[in-house]
Amino acid sequence: MLHDSSLRIRWGATFLCAIGVQFASCQCSSDDATQPPPPPTSLAAPSILLTLTISQTEIDVLWLGNNLLLDIDFGVGEAFEVYRCQSAAPGSGCTPNVLVTTAPSDATYHDAGLTPGTEYCYHVVATWAFQGTSLRSQPSAVRCATTDAAPPPPPPPPPPPTSATLAFDTDRDGNDEVYVINVDGTGATRLTNDPGNDNEPTWSPDGMQIAFDSDRNGDSEIYVMAADGTNQTRRTTNAASDDRPDWSHDGMRITWEQTVDGSMIMVMNADGTNPVSVRTNAFFNSHPTWSPDGMRIAFSSDMQGAEEIYVMNADGTGAAQITSNGMQSNQPDWSPDGTRIAYTRFVGSNTEIYVMNADGTNQVNLTNNSAYDFDPVWSPDGSMIAFTSLRDGNREIYVMNADGSGQTRVTNNPARDTNPAWKP
Ligand SMILES: [Ca+2]
Ligand SMILES: [Ca+2]
Ligand SMILES: [Ca+2]
Ligand SMILES: [Ca+2]
Questions:
Q1: pLDDT value of residue 33
Q2: Distance 257 CA to ligand 1 centre (A)
Q3: Which residues of the chain have pLDDT under 50?
Q4: pTM of the prediction?
Q5: Residues 202 and 422: beta-carbon distance below 8 Å
Q6: What whole-number distance in Å separates Cα of residue 327 and Cα of residue 306?
Q7: What residues have their beta carbon closer than 5 A to ion ligand 2?
Q8: Which residues on adjacent β-strands are paired with residue 277?
Q9: Topology of the domain comprising 38-146
């Protein structure tokens, strides 16, 4: 409130003299020409100036007291009570009946924690109390404001397309076999049937063939079969363990991991000719995945201690480390548009699916639970990611939207279901 300080000091000193307080600079006397004013008998209602919508949950209320002379004459001004009500609907108004704050002076009351899209109305009552005199004003005029509406909830994620097909491996028949299944969980069909372990399928880009690894002949080798499981043909012949094939997007080549002491990254023609080691050292180089243009291969390696993701040219030159998480980061899978890489990362006590830009920036966590989540693979259109999770007590295949929403179980079987691969 505005003050006339000279008046206030004068009246204040006079009043204190009147109740017996002596001042060094003045003498109180009964014949002092200046007398205190009589206490007021009524109080003017304050003016409510503005109710202002601040956000979905906040309204500011501004008011002004109308009793300036109280402050001037008595050194104490009025206080204020702010009342609120909630309208049934915006524009319908209401009578404020809930005291939401008391304030010692003209002020702005910041009302928070409100419901979005709701009208609230306010009035303010002035009060004054001094030396046994208590007064209340009539309420101010009522002012209303409506909080901003909440944004509409995001639409629910679309259900996975029922026509999409995943290959995966499972030991539901006693040893690992390659199966296909529709993403809605129907149509599980076994493609391999042998006593060895048949694992880690990858599709040819035309969807006509599946490459996989199998130890049916002793050590693990790369095989190729037709998409219906017929014509199973061995593509590697060596004493090392040959695993985790990934078919190039032009259909011409297959990269895989070959383990003797360390693990090498290998590339061969899809017919098995011309196998070449493109990454050879004593470390564990694993999970090669083609960039869509076939120019580069991402893989994981423990050459710096913990497994991290690396990208190199398809001939093995120019390897660059793109993650530095300090804990196991592996199983990269390159998105169909080439811009992103999904991978598995150890976090705390289990693993989660992450995606990042192909240069390692902008890492985003997609799964977040206490179970192991791993084996991420992009759908052909890049809109979804299939993966394996232990969240239901055993390994099951799941799919989710590429932003992590809509996580949906595909398999439902007490066996170990892993290594999904999306049919092109
Ligand atoms: Ca088998
Ligand atoms: Ca072999
Ligand atoms: Ca997890
Ligand atoms: Ca299972």
A1: 53
A2: 20
A3: 1-31
A4: 0.65
A5: no
A6: 5
A7: 219, 221, 238, 240, 242
A8: 266
A9: Immunoglobulin-like (2.60.40)
Position 400: which residue type? M
Per-domain residue ranges of the chain: 38-146, 165-422
- Ligand that comes closest to the CA of residue 236: 2
> What local confidence, expressed as pLDDT, does residue 68 receive?
84
pLDDT digit string, tens, across residues 185-225:
999 999 999 999 999 999 999 999 999 999 999 999 999 99
Nearest ligand, measured from the Cα of 350: 3
* Ligand approaching nearest to the C-alpha of 257: 2
Residue 411 CA, ligand 4 centroid: distance in Å: 6
Nearest-ligand number for the alpha carbon of 387: 3
Note the CATH number of domain 165-422: 2.120.10.30
Q: Please tell me the predicted confidence (pLDDT) of residue 24.
A: 36
User: Dihedral through CA 63, CA 64, CA 67, CA 70, nearest 10?
Assistant: 100
Measured on CA atoms in the order 360, 361, 367, 368, is the torsion positive or negative? positive
95 phi, psi to nearest 5 deg: -105, 115
**Ligand 3 center–CA 270 separation, angstroms:** 35
Q: Closest by alpha carbon to 1, among 101, 70, 48, 87?
A: 70
Structure tokens at 79: 């206080």
Contact 418, 395 (CB under 8 A): yes
Confidence at residue 157, expressed as pLDDT on a 0 to 100 scale: 65
